[in-house]
Amino acid sequence: MPLGIPTPESLGAKALDIIFGELLKQIGIAKDKAVQYKPALDRMQDTINQLQPIAKEIEELNRRLDDTDNETKMLRQRIKEGETLVKECTEEVRWWNCCWKKPSYFDKLNRLDEDIQRFVSIVLQVHQVKNEKKIMLQLNDMNARMTGDGKGNGVMFSDDAGTCAVPEVPRLVVGLDLHVKELKSQMLQSATDLIVVSAPPGCGKTTLVLKFCHDEEVKEKYKENIFFIAVSKSLNLKTIISRMFKHKRRRVPEFQSDDDAINQLENLLRTINSPILLILDDVWPQSQHDVEKFQFQIQDYKILLTSRAALRRFNCYLLKGLDQDNSTILFRAAAGLTNEVSEILKEDIDEAIEGCKGIPLVLKVVGRSLCGQPQAVWRARLQEWRTGMSDLQSDDGEILARLRTCLEFPDSKADVKHCFLDLGSFPEDQRIPATTLIDMWAELYGFDEEGVKSVANIHELCFRNLASLIIIREKFYESENNYSQHFVTQHDILRELAIIESSTEPVEYRKRLFVNISNNRFPSWWKYQDGKHYHARLLAISTDESFSSAWPDLQAPEVEIMVISFWGKYTLPAFINSMKKLKVFIFTNYGSHPAELTNFQVVPSLSNLQRIRMEHLQVPRLFVPHFQLKNLRKLSFIMCKIGDAFKNCDYLIPVALPNLAELCFDYCEDLLALPSGFWEIPQLQNLHIMNCHNLTGLPEEIGKLTNLQQMRLSSCTGLSRLPKTIGKLKSLVLLDVSDCLRLEEFPSEIGELLALRRLDMRKCLRVHELPESVVKLQALKEAICDDDRGRLWGRYERHLPKLKVDIPEEAINLNWL
Fold first, then answer.
1. What superkingdom heads the lineage (predicted)?
2. What gap in Å lies between CA 812 and CA 133, rounded to an integer?
3. How far apart are CA 722 and CA 2, in angstroms?
4. How many CB atoms lie within 10 A of CB 78?
5. Which of 30, 273, 514, 583 is 20 to 30 A from 492 (CA-CA)?
């Protein structure tokens, strides 16, 4: 009884609604007219109600994947057949023919029962298909985001550098509802195409814009065409426009100039269905001319800026501080004064609130610094405020003076303040990877290698509202000590405070030197050194895209941590040779394309170097004769193009890195295989290869790493197998193959991992059974799985009494990209 199936052009969520609706309608009619079949029809109705929302979700994923040959075709056919069968039962069974028609319909009813059973089976299958479709969508998005030209020759980037998604609104926000309403009136209803939200730092400009973007009316109008970009002091046209191309998953052109980039952007915006909203957050006055270049004669295209200054070229919306009532609400929440009863005198609370001048950031930081403190501390803080303004030389001196009083820490937490000051090492409005801070603080302050103490201090800073922590992966296991998905952000006025606090001593005696080189202008103390030696332990240098790499000499022999942040091609300064105490070297390129790093030959002279982290670089040829870093213990490549960096150097690697204990590759798209030389390093304990999608397998030589304790292969979506020699890794305690979508099976030798305590196998969609040898994993305490992989462990539970199978409920969140 075949029925016509809708054409592919008509298929979709709406078509499924119609098909499901017709079947449910016929079931309802049949239940009234053919009462004898009511139990079977009830079962069928329940099944359809379960199937309908899941099938619609799959259909939407199919649309986004452009998948026309998909499993819902079969489902639609079954539903249409069921509709026909139910309709026949309704129309042909009557009171006058029931006696002789009834036997002839037994076969049809049996087929109906079989259809119902098939539907129940489909429910389970569809759940699996739905999950696989979501993963496929993630991969498509990942390819679009990590490959600029569709051929693997484009731009790789992290979430913060590569997208223009609107961040979430902070949890506690007060006093902005009226401002959102007024801003909507100006932006949505007026003919004005550019508005500047202006206020002093910390007043909530960015928060207002975030609430505006998350307003339902605004989201309904602009949908997916909102671009949110933090600009900061240096507005880099090419970088901003590259991010906009990536956000729309378009190939990023090779811009010949700023004017070419602007022309290419206009072409892009004209291909997007309007309306379009561009948010440029934290624009400085010197960038007004560049902002004008983003204005195009495109219908329903608007620009919203935030700036500390009232930019005279544009229409301004002035955001004032909070009124007394809202200031009180925010301050009391931050200070933990959740009820009216408090040992702190009301007049002291009111004076503290008044001293914060209605500035939300100050209210939160000051309030939290006084949380749980006795009356005497409140009085001392207020007395300090009454004695007059600080000597801070800044346009925002009053704000900074209030915040400065919040940097008093007890002796037991003195290191937390040092960690706060170290955050000034990184460019403003950039996410700071927690793993970078862990590397720095482990060597600078002797914190533990696993990062527990470092992350505890980060949490302390967040508790005090001096920083914010973003965790990309929704389900995080603290016991894993894997902080690759943790990022720290900091308000730019707090970063400015950290820099000022680090600069109170004469420059040659400072513990930290923060150097920002813009337009090739070096600070005067550097240009006119007069043979001085500098005693800083931490040196952070940031350069802009115009930097020419013409380095004057610098004598800083005490430096232990060096952080270099740059845009574009970069030549390492020769004066690094003199930094014999250097332990941590961090190179981060914030430009649009992986940057070339030259003069790397100065690095081998650093005999005390413990850690190297390269981010978004074209990795130079590292291993050449006589290259040796005998004390290097950790080597990290993040979003790097590997190219020929390791070509023909296998025999050199174990000689160059005899004590390497940790090796990390993350988002290295062109990593096809690891050089076998790394398998000859007996000291290697941690191997992290994550988000390297073209890595298809590991060599058998991996069995030589007998001291390996952790192996993370998370999100290596091309990995199809694990080598049999994995069984020789007798010290392995953690194996993470989560999101390895093409991994088909575990070798039977996995049972030889007698020290294995944790196995993460979430989203290993092609693994449908476990080898019998897993019964020998008597040390295994936790297997982290999705639903389907979790069921595989059921038959082995009685053999593994220590095992806990954890099936976290993880929403699909593309932020982890």
1. Eukaryota
2. 11
3. 47
4. 16
5. 583
User: CA–CA distance from 172 to each of 85, 334, 363, 777 (Å)?
Assistant: 57, 10, 12, 47
Q: What angle do CA 378, 468, 205 make, to 5 degrees?
A: 85
251, 154 Cβ separation under 8 angstroms: yes
DSSP notation for 214-225: HSHHHHHHHTT-
Residues 6+ positions from 278 with CB-CB distance below 8 Å: 227, 229, 294, 301, 302, 303, 304
The amino acid occupying position 699 is: P
Note the CATH number of domain 159-318: 3.40.50.300
Q: Do residues 119 and 81 lie in contact, with contact meaning Cβ atoms separated by under 8 Å?
A: no
Check pLDDT > 50 for residue 629: yes
What is the C-alpha to C-alpha distance for residues 431 and 572, in angstroms, rounded to an integer?
A: 24
CA distance 195 to 765: 49
Residues in the chain: 817
- 155-214 pLDDT per residue, tens: 333 343 447 889 888 888 999 999 999 999 888 877 778 999 999 999 999 999 999 999
* Helix, coil or strand: residue 600: helix
CA gap 676, 649 in Å, rounded: 9
Could you write out the DSSP letters of every residue in 233-252? SS--HHHHHHHHHHHTT-PP
| Residue labelled with tokens 């975030």 | 210
How confident is the model over 113-140, as pLDDT tens digits?
565 555 545 544 554 555 555 555 555 5
What are the extents of the domains in the chain? Answer: 8-146, 159-318, 321-406
**Contact assessment for residue 688 and residue 664, using Cβ atoms and an 8 Å cutoff:** yes
Q: Which residues are registered as beta bridge partners of 301?
A: 276
Q: Report residue 375 as tokens.
A: 């009356």
> Do the bridges between strand 432-433 and strand 486-489 make them parallel or antiparallel, or are there none, so unpaired?
antiparallel
CA 278 to chain centre: 21
Task: Give the C-alpha separation, 103 to 817, whole Å.
Answer: 60
Stated as kind and residue range, the H or E segment containing 634 is: strand 634-638
Contact yes or no for 437/422 (Cβ under 8 A): yes
CATH of 321-406, one of 3.40.1170.60, 1.10.1530.10, 2.60.40.10, 1.10.8.430: 1.10.8.430
Distances in whole angstroms, Cα of residue 283 to Cα of each of 105, 156, 280, 336, 715: 76, 26, 7, 34, 37
